[in-house]
Amino acid sequence: MGVTKRHIHSMRANQMADLAKVLSNPARVAILEYIGDCDGCLCQDIAEKIRLSQPTTSQHLQVIRKAGLLKSQFKGKAQYYSIDLRKWDQLQQHFQDFFEATRAKCC
């Protein structure tokens, strides 16, 4: 596999590609769907619901969190995850703008 030439693409293109990578994994999509149904979820609860091991679920949560789509907060020793709605709205807007602009150019 060749070296990715991120530097030749716009920051917007790189950001969209990074967010698309997060959504390209079905486990991460399932995690986001589950977290959207609750008000702060524990990793263990998420793991049980989507039927993955706790360490695997934790790794996926960190990828999603690094992309900025999740917030987390500690209550005692437990870490609760929730969707960062501000970032979620930005994600939706970025993809909507991309699809609308591309469609307008080609059709």
UniProtKB/TrEMBL annotation:
Alphabetical list of Gene3D superfamilies matching this protein: Winged helix-like DNA-binding domain superfamily/Winged helix DNA-binding domain
SUPFAM superfamilies referenced in this protein's UniProt entry, alphabetically: Winged helix' DNA-binding domain
Domain annotation HTH arsR-type: ranges: 8-103
Entry keyword Acyltransferase: no
PANTHER family assigned to the protein according to its UniProt record, in alphabetical order: REGULATORY PROTEIN ARSR (PTHR33154:SF15), TRANSCRIPTIONAL REGULATOR, ARSR FAMILY (PTHR33154)
InterPro entries, A to Z: ArsR-like_HTH, HTH_ArsR_DNA-bd_dom, HTH_MetalResp_TranReg, WH-like_DNA-bd_sf, WH_DNA-bd_sf
SMART domains linked to this entry: HTH_ARSR (SM00418)
Keywords: DNA-binding, Transcription, Transcription regulation
Record-given protein name: ArsR/SmtB family transcription factor
Organism the protein comes from: Dokdonia ponticola
